[in-house]
From TrEMBL, chain A:
Protein keywords: Glycolysis, Lyase, Schiff base
EC number assigned by the record: 4.1.2.13
A Pfam family hit: Glycolytic
Catalytic activity entry: beta-D-fructose 1,6-bisphosphate = D-glyceraldehyde 3-phosphate + dihydroxyacetone phosphate
Gene3D superfamilies recorded: Aldolase class I
Top-level EC class as recorded in UniProt: lyase
Protein name per UniProt: Fructose-bisphosphate aldolase
CDD domains named in the record: FBP_aldolase_I_a
GO terms (BP aspect): glycolytic process
Family per record: Belongs to the class I fructose-bisphosphate aldolase family.
Gene Ontology MF terms in the entry: fructose-bisphosphate aldolase activity
Species: Chlorella vulgaris (Green alga)
Automatic annotation (TrEMBL), chain B:
Keyword Lyase belongs to the record: yes
Listed InterPro entries: Aldolase_TIM, FBA_I
Superkingdom in the source lineage: Eukaryota
Recorded catalytic activity of this chain's protein: beta-D-fructose 1,6-bisphosphate = D-glyceraldehyde 3-phosphate + dihydroxyacetone phosphate
GO molecular function: fructose-bisphosphate aldolase activity
Protein name: fructose-bisphosphate aldolase
EC number: 4.1.2.13
A matching Pfam family: Glycolytic
Broad EC category: lyase
Keyword Phosphoprotein: no
Stated family: Belongs to the class I fructose-bisphosphate aldolase family.
Lineage, opening ranks: Eukaryota, Viridiplantae, Chlorophyta, core chlorophytes, Trebouxiophyceae
SUPFAM superfamilies: Aldolase
UniProt keyword list: Glycolysis, Lyase
Length: 400, 362
């Protein structure tokens, strides 16, 4: 794996990081004591369980099904196949996913939206129990959506810290064993995310992770450097991703988050939508380099998001990662939403008679990505030749 | 040039390889020589260092030797420059580029490190003399409210600045945030402080755009303080705590973690390093080499022999001892050290010194 010395592309920084950008250090003159880096492990009764679950979810040949779209977002998807956005329809759609035969051979965890966590199948079986039967751990999206940061060019912070402890406790009781919180950072033409956006989102992620662990949930930490318009290069994506992850990891350590009990959900490094697309080998090279430079080995699993990549692209890129990092210290795997659901949804069309076929597609997609995780994917792809599956950012979701 | 730095870093941290830290400033080495009965003259320093650079340390597992600036320009008795003596046996020459510790304003007992102002010029000069890598040491106290936020932040910033300048000049930087063995803190407290310090250092390196693939880090193993009243940590505990901290803080891109010996006896340092590597192998491996950059732990027995007799036969024995100490630690990097340890000083106890080199004379 080659790495070049000049890892900085020639781009303008929206703002400079001040030398003491952890501006909170102003308050801490010499009298403040620097406390506990590993205190959490001793103090947290969930420590061993968190480590075991994180390891279990990220074990070889497995990945996560991200099915935690909010009701509004789910509605948009159902709309594309002419299905109304009702609770029953949402329930049917998720039931289709969670009862797909043999899904548990390839999927180790499924992220749910709050409504779904408490739903039952048509036959009255709790979804968490259906998943358990499949050997799939239930997860829960705990953030309540994006909010625009004032004074920025559409950059966002993520909401959901209020009352998070109590909510996590309730989710754990219901059967959830991991959580997810999505932060979004933007690269626009020639400019990366502002330092305000980076620090704000990194703080949110670290605080969320801390609270989740206190309540027995393995936090998936998702700092998504989102694929967007513009002709920016893959090197620029890698550069900004490095900066973002560096701050995220620094804050996770400062907040005493037990790294062996988290999972990371980053973006792969891709060029901007208006730049020529990169080959799997190139994506892998920059993505692996970025992970090597920022993620310490104690994190057991890195579950890449599919974020707009087509189904086939998601699988091929995942496989290329294994080739590019044969002795990787963390599992390089997936947490795919659109890349597992898009073709499945299209096949279902909301019709009973397509139920089995749709489930078969889902399992086939999960299998393809499981094989890719093992570096053993051979094709043909169950959903070949698809284009980018893009989705606009939603603001002000407030968890609905 | 860029790939060369990455290759150099890989070479220094190759399997079974480690570093000889022989870069004691004139003041520090002077204290040791005087304690051993020598006068602190340039010739005394030169002839002492010659024992090491003319010993077969290369084949014994040393990939690089860190020199003090005076030494970088010195020669063996037969006129061969030290850099060449080392080069011949595949040992890269490194150079200490910091100019010692200074008290940190407003933080009693804490220090920062001098040398940034003249660093670039110094680096370019040393490259011309044949140096391939550099080292800069920060020292942080643990306990009694230390290390403070200001101390950590200041030292981390300095280390990152130093590392960036080195790479721009063509030297692989060894980043050394030494948490001192002084104090009565226990192993857990030391682990906590180390985690905080090392991850801050990494964050600053990243912020400065330092290429991690061409950087080495030189931390202390996770051990209790020298005055800790609890039981001494056994090698297995040292290994577990050390691995946990390193895995928590150090990104996979860094090719080597070169532990300092900082006050451990020669034997302790080797046994702990060996156990660290065995534990690492047994727990799924690590992405960086777990190696050594030892000063006292590679030198104390040699100095002892040398102090007793400076004749030709003794020189040969000193060289043998230098190689034997190096070999023991090279085996430890592979997790394959087997006793007995060649050390003849371990019975004297810790090699801890209270002289901290705060003086600025050189």
């Amino acid at each position: 794996m080659q790495a070049s010395l000049s890892s900085r592309p020639n781009i303008a920084c929206r703002s400079q990081f001040a030398a003491g950008a952890a501006a909170t250090s102003k308050r801490s003159r010499c009298s403040s004591v620097v406390v506990a880096g590993l205190a959490t492990e001793k103090d947290n009764p969930f420590a061993e369980e968190l480590k075991a679950n994180a390891k279990h979810i990220s074990r070889r040949g497995r990945g996560i099904l991200a099915s935690d779209e909010s009701n509004a977002t789910t509605g948009k998807r159902l709309e594309t196949i002419g299905v109304d956005n009702t609770e029953d329809n949402r329930r049917d759609w998720r039931q289709l996913l969670y009862t797909a035969p043999d899904l548990g051979n390839y999927i180790s965890g499924a992220i749910m939206f709050e409504e779904t966590l408490y739903q039952k199948s048509r036959e009255g079986v709790q979804f968490v129990d259906l998943l358990k039967e499949q050997g799939i751990l239930p997860g829960i999206k705990v953030d309540t959506g994006l909010q625009v940061l004032p004074g920025t060019d559409g950059e966002t912070t993520t909401q959901g810290l209020d009352n998070l402890g109590a909510r996590c406790e309730a989710y754990y009781k219901q059967g959830a064993r991991f959580a997810k919180w999505r932060a979004v950072l933007k690269i626009s033409e020639g400019e990366g995310p502002s330092s305000q956006a980076i620090l704000e989102n990194a703080h949110g992620l670290a605080r969320y992770a801390q609270i989740a662990q206190q309540n027995g949930l393995v936090p998936i930490v998702e700092p998504e450097v989102t694929l967007g318009p513009g002709a920016y290069s893959i090197e620029e994506t890698a550069y900004w991703s490095e900066r973002v992850y560096s701050h995220v990891m620094r804050l996770l350590n400062e907040y005493d988050v037990l790294l062996e009990g988290i999972l990371l959900k980053p973006n792969m490094c891709l060029p901007g939508l208006d730049a020529p697309s990169a080959s799997p080998a190139e994506v892998a090279k920059y993505t692996v380099r970025t992970m090597m430079r920022t993620i310490p080995p104690s994190v057991p699993g890195i579950h890449f998001l599919s974020g707009g990549m087509s189904e086939e692209e998601s699988t091929l890129n995942l496989q290329a990662l294994q080739d590019a990092c044969p002795n990787s210290p963390w599992s390089l795997t997936f947490s795919y939403g659109r890349a597992l659901q898009s073709a499945t949804l299209k096949t279902w069309q909301g019709k009973e008679e397509n139920w089995g076929k749709a489930q078969a597609i889902l399992t086939a997609l999960a299998k393809a990505n499981s094989e890719a995780q093992l570096g053993q994917y051979k094709g043909p792809h169950p959903a070949p030749g698809g284009g980018r599956i893009l989705q606009a950012l939603r603001f002000g979701g407030a968890g609905k | 040039m860029s790939l060369e730095l990455i290759e150099t870093a890989k070479y220094l941290s190759a399997p079974g390889k480690g570093l000889l830290a022989s870069d004691e400033s004139t003041g520090t080495i002077g204290k040791r020589l005087e304690k051993a009965g020598f006068e602190n003259t340039e010739e005394a320093r030169r002839s002492y260092r010659e024992l090491f650079y003319t010993a077969p340390i290369g084949e014994a597992g040393i990939s690089g030797a860190i020199l003090f600036k005076e030494t970088l320009g010195q020669q063996a008795a037969d006129g061969t420059p030290f850099v060449e003596c080392l080069q011949r046996q595949g040992v890269l020459a490194g150079i200490k580029v910091d100019e010692g510790l200074v008290p940190l304003d407003g933080c009693p007992g804490e220090t920062s490190t001098r040398g940034l102002a003249t660093l670039e010029a110094a680096c370019r000069g040393h490259v011309a003399q044949g140096a391939k890598f550099a080292k800069w040491r920060a020292a942080l106290k643990v306990g009694g409210g230390c290390p403070t936020e200001q101390c950590i932040e200041t030292n981390a910033q300095q280390l990152a600045e130093y590392a960036a300048v080195c790479q721009a000049c063509g030297l692989v930087p060894i980043v050394e945030p030494e948490l001192l063995i002084d104090g009565n803190h226990d192993q857990a407290a030391f682990a906590d402080a180390s985690t905080r310090v090392i991850s801050r250092c990494i964050a600053h390196l990243q912020r400065k755009g330092v290429v991690l693939e061409a950087t080495l880090i030189k931390p202390q193993m996770i051990i209790p303080g020298a005055d800790c009243t609890g039981p001494k940590a056994d090698p297995s505990e040292v290994a577990q705590h050390t691995l946990a901290v390193m895995r928590q803080c150090v990104p996979a891109a860094i090719p080597g973690i070169m532990f300092l010996s900082g006050g451990q006896t020669e034997e302790e340092a080797t046994i702990n390093l060996n156990r660290i590597n065995q534990e690492a192998q047994q727990s799924g491996g690590c992405p960086w080499s777990l190696s050594f950059s030892f000063g006292r732990s590679l030198q104390a027995s040699v100095l002892k022999l040398w102090s007793e007799d400076q004749g030709e036969a003794s020189k040969a024995r000193c060289r043998e001892m230098a190689a034997a100490l190096a070999h023991a630690n090279s085996r430890a990097v592979l997790g394959k050290f087997e006793g007995p340890h060649p050390s003849i000083t371990s019975q004297q106890g810790s090699l801890r010194e209270t002289f901290r080199g705060w003086r600025t004379d050189v």
